[in-house]
Design goal:
Strand content: 5-15%
Number of helices: 25
Helix content: 25-40%
Shape: globular
Structural class: alpha/beta
Length: 641
């Protein structure tokens, strides 16, 4: 007996053009089938569930009303794009989503013409939609032609300042474009800030079915018989804190709020807007994240990210953990530090669960701040907290901290303020792929004067680095650690404060030295075992610091070995480049040292398991072993096929 849902209408859809042949009643039934298909798919693959379930009706309605791919639908962040992918010719490949050689869990231009703009970070869709509209007006060349541009953005993503920068510009240019505000009261964590409260108040005080509220701001879009009544409604509501006042001030005609799960509202309103809009329009749609699947609807995160799960029970099939995650270690150790120091506080940008700060917030709610999807603000907020005498830990994923880099330079580093950057998801992260890889933070942090940059080789080292950061008041300091479980090493009760800029020897050997920065140390030790079987015992050291470098350790390794190899989970320009610069300035290469630097390759690596991604990067134990043999000129007769 098949565990797949029955989908007679969906089976007739090979592209969005097929939706044009369905009646409105059939489109409603199609949405039910699409929801069931999405649940069945994610139960087998894992992935982002709740966001897609919340936009099933909206996805069907948009593709039924607009003519994609000429009309460009741009999904902000694009966690919610699974139903879109099913409708746009990728249904037969959904079993490969987020897997090696499979399709991406986000929109991706190279994957389909129905993905006009790639995404995975937030708040970019309105800028992109405006860009497409201007490109069309200027005669830009698009292989599929130009049409309307529709940005679909959640209320969480609207907390990102870039969304308002784009709306301000779009309102000024007065280009016809559509922004669909998908208001589900929730991003990944609880939505943060005044905007979320404003949106909640909007539809709490104005019933969704209230024609007056729907008409406000949309007078020019309505058929003629309704205009006079709509004008009166608008005048009546003008003095009230309702309707789209904020959005209208930015130059948008505001329509809504409407029920985003009611096709009888969605279809006619979208058709009217498409037919009559002349300038920028914001359609406020209220939805429920996880809609139609109780195990997602009532989960604390509304089914945001899921492993494989049983559809009936909702139980996830997760292997038991053998070691604590790095994120959990960070949270536990920070709580211990904060117990002794009332000046320690913590800041994250819409990722309290992902960074472990939800645990910190339970214990110290007044000292924990979620600033929303606003990394720039978060970094500068931390800078002023530090200037005001606090000890802020700025906990952000490496890939998201990139968004606040100007503030890291201008507001933190130049002012030498002691902000502690806890950089989670360092290195290659697996199923999320290139958009979420923490490949660049070593380089972009270590090139800043006065910045201290550390990387934990294991979870015990992470404990020491948290303690070191808490004690460091001379300027900014950063420590990086990967996603997932630790190495299973013995854990100290409390971390020890490390001497700044000093590494540690792991193993004494001869001829070749391997200097590791970060969690590749485990792979280095596996490679060392294989090399010892060949009669080669490398010296192994853990650098701990990319800045300041341990000059004495590095120069000693260079002096006492014929070859030196560095390895790091980061792109070129990071730790190995700094070591190479030191060796060059000290004239070490003049004396014949053989030097190699193992870094991530100069390509974006697509999603796979972390181990497979490091295979693609040639940074696992066998690759380290091969690098040592190569630099020593040892012939390998038994190469693997």
């Amino acid at each position: 007996m098949s565990d797949r849902p029955e989908t007679p209408l969906l089976d007739r859809v090979s592209s969005p053009a097929d939706l044009k042949h369905f009646s409105d009643a059939e489109l409603t039934r199609l949405a039910h089938e699409l929801r069931a298909e999405t649940i069945a798919t994610v139960s087998k693959t894992g992935g982002h569930l709740g966001a897609g379930l919340g936009v099933v009706e909206l996805t069907v309605a948009l593709h039924a009303v607009f003519d994609t791919p000429q009309d460009k639908i741009i999904w902000d962040v694009s966690h919610q794009c699974y139903p879109h992918k099913i409708l746009t010719g990728r249904r037969d490949r959904m079993g490969t989503i987020r897997q090696q050689n499979g399709i991406s869990g986000f929109t991706k231009r190279s994957e389909s013409p129905y993905d006009p703009f790639g995404a995975a970070h937030s708040s970019t869709s309105i800028s992109a939609a405006l860009g497409f509209k201007v490109a069309a007006d200027l005669g830009g060349n698009s292989p599929v032609g130009h049409g309307d541009a529709i940005a679909v953005i959640g209320d969480g993503a609207m907390t990102g300042g870039m969304a308002f920068e784009a709306m301000n510009n779009a309102g000024h240019l007065k280009k016809r474009m559509f922004v669909v505000l998908n208001d589900n009261e929730m991003s990944i964590g609880q939505p943060t800030g005044a905007l979320s409260s404003y949106l909640t108040r909007l539809y709490a005080e104005a019933p969704m079915q209230d024609l007056k509220a729907a008409a406000k701001g949309a007078v020019s879009l309505l058929p003629e018989p309704f205009r006079e009544g709509a004008k009166r409604a608008k005048e009546m509501l003008k003095g009230m804190a309702l309707g789209g006042t904020l959005f209208e001030e930015l130059g948008f005609s505001y329509v809504g709020p409407i029920d985003g799960h009611d096709m009888d509202q969605l279809l006619p309103i979208l058709r009217t807007l498409r037919e009559r809009a002349t300038g920028p329009v914001l359609l406020h749609v209220v939805t429920k994240k996880g809609k139609g699947y109780a195990h997602a609807e009532y989960a604390p995160d509304k089914g945001h990210a899921r492993g494989k799960f049983d559809v009936v029970s909702g139980k996830q099939h997760k292997a038991p953990s053998n070691a604590p995650s790095y994120t959990k270690v960070f949270a536990d150790q920070l709580i211990k530090q904060a117990a002794d120091d009332p000046q320690i506080c913590a800041v994250t940008a819409a990722m309290p669960d992902g960074t472990g700060l939800d645990l910190f917030a339970e214990r110290y709610p007044s000292r924990c701040f979620d600033v929303g999807i606003a990394e720039q603000h978060g970094v500068t907020f931390c800078a002023a907290l530090a200037a005001g005498g606090m000890k802020p830990f700025c906990a952000m994923y490496s890939t998201f901290l990139q968004r606040g880099y100007d503030q890291v330079v201008h507001d933190v580093a130049i002012q030498r303020l002691p902000v502690r950057f806890a950089i989670d998801r360092a290195g290659l992260v697996g199923a999320d792929g290139a958009t979420h890889a923490g490949s660049y933070d070593i380089a972009y942090m270590a090139n800043l004067p006065g910045m201290v940059v550390m990387a934990a080789a294991d979870e015990a080292e992470l404990c020491h680095m948290i303690a070191t950061a808490a004690a460091h008041d001379e300027g900014p300091i950063a420590f990086r650690y990967p996603r997932g479980e630790g190495q299973g090493v013995d854990m100290p009760e409390r971390g020890e404060v490390l001497e700044i800029g000093k590494g540690r020897m792991i193993q004494e050997g001869a001829r070749v030295a391997i200097l590791s920065f970060g969690t590749r140390l485990g792979e280095v030790m596996k490679a060392s075992e294989a090399l010892q079987a060949r009669g080669i015992t490398p010296t192994v050291a853990d650098a701990r610091f990319a800045k300041p470098l341990d000059r004495d350790l590095i120069l000693s390794l260079a002096r006492e070995h014929e070859a030196l190899i560095t390895i790091e989970e980061g792109a070129v320009g990071g730790f190995g480049s700094h070591v190479g610069q030191l060796l060059a300035e000290e004239g070490v290469f003049d004396r014949g040292l053989k030097y190699r630097s193992m870094v991530l390759p100069d390509v974006f690596i697509d999603q796979a398991s972390p181990s497979a991604m490091y295979d693609a990067a040639a940074m696992n134990a066998e690759h380290i072993e091969a690098k040592v043999l190569n630099v020593l000129g040892v012939e390998v007769l038994d190469k693997r096929a």
